[in-house]
Every structure is written in C-alpha cells, then in structure tokens.
Amino acid sequence: MRTRLYPLEDLEDIPGTTVFTAKRSREAYHLHKFCMSLMEAANREAFKADERAYLARFRMSEDQKQAVLERDFNRLIDLGGNIYFLVKLSNTDGWSTQKAVSSMTGMTADEYAAMMRAGGRSPEGQRSKREGN
User: Fold this and answer.
1) Residue 72 and residue 31 in contact, taking contact as beta carbons nearer than 8 Å
2) By residue range, what is the domain housing residue 62?
3) pTM of the predicted model as reported, rounded to 2 decimal places
4) In CATH, what number is assigned to the domain containing residue 35?
C-alpha cells in the first residue's frame, strides 16, 4: 500500500483551485474525447454547423454538454474538465488561450494579462478554505 504525504481531501482545500485528479479524469473522459475530436478540421466544421447535434455523438453528461454550449469553462472544470483539453474548444471559437483563461476570472484578456505581468493573483486569502486564509 502506498503512503500519501497528505490526504486527498486536502486538495479540495485550496481556494480558487480545482486540482485535476484521477477521479475528475474519469468523470470527464467523454468530455475530453469531444475536445480531442476538435483537433480535426472536419470535426470543427461539423461542431460549428450544429453544436447540439455534434455533442450528441459523445456520452457526456447533460451538464457537460450545456457547459460546452455556454462556453462556461469554470463549470467544465467543476465537471472534471482539464484546461489542456478544454483549450481545444476555445481555439475552435478562435479564442486565444489568454482569452479562454481570462473568461474564467471575470476579467478581460487585457486585464488578465496585466495581472499576470504584475506577478499574478495575490496569495492573500488563497491558502485554505478551512482556515479562512
């Protein structure tokens, strides 16, 4: 048996961060298959022509499909998605990775870039949900 340095539930204690775990990977398997399909031009065109019909090809949850349709990247991550797969969806829309990530923060792409150039998000209040810091 493998000994862990910390309990896995500690990963859920990081404010503003969703750690991609094996469980999340299993939950999003079909979502990720959809995202990877967008690497082919013909699939991107089929998706753009009728998004709902294209999504029907994949055994994703209805919540995942709705989040795709709404381009709600925060919700997609909550539903197990990994940004490295999800960026294929944003790229299909012609979004830069910067725009996709900034959409998750409530900032414009320029505001997000300025925050990152200034050193990123402050660690204050971002250490622990349980401890309130």
Assistant:
1) no
2) 22-93
3) 0.79
4) 1.10.700.10
Q: Residue for token digits 């381009």?
A: 71
3-20 pLDDT tens trace: 777 676 766 666 666 666
- Residue 110 and residue 20: Cα distance in Å, rounded? 27
Residue 2 located in a structural domain: no
Report how many domains make up the chain.
1
Q: Is 113 part of any domain?
A: no
Per the domain annotation, does 110 fall within a domain? no
Q: Could you tell me if residue 121 is inside a domain? A: no
Long-range pairs for 35-38 at CB < 8 Å and ≥24 separation? 35/81, 35/85, 35/86, 35/88, 35/89, 36/85, 36/88, 38/88, 38/89, 38/91, 38/92
pLDDT of 11-59, one tens digit each?
666 666 666 677 877 889 999 999 999 999 999 999 999 999 999 999 9
CB contact at 8 A, 32 and 81:
yes
Per the structure block, which two tokens stand in for 127?
């250490």
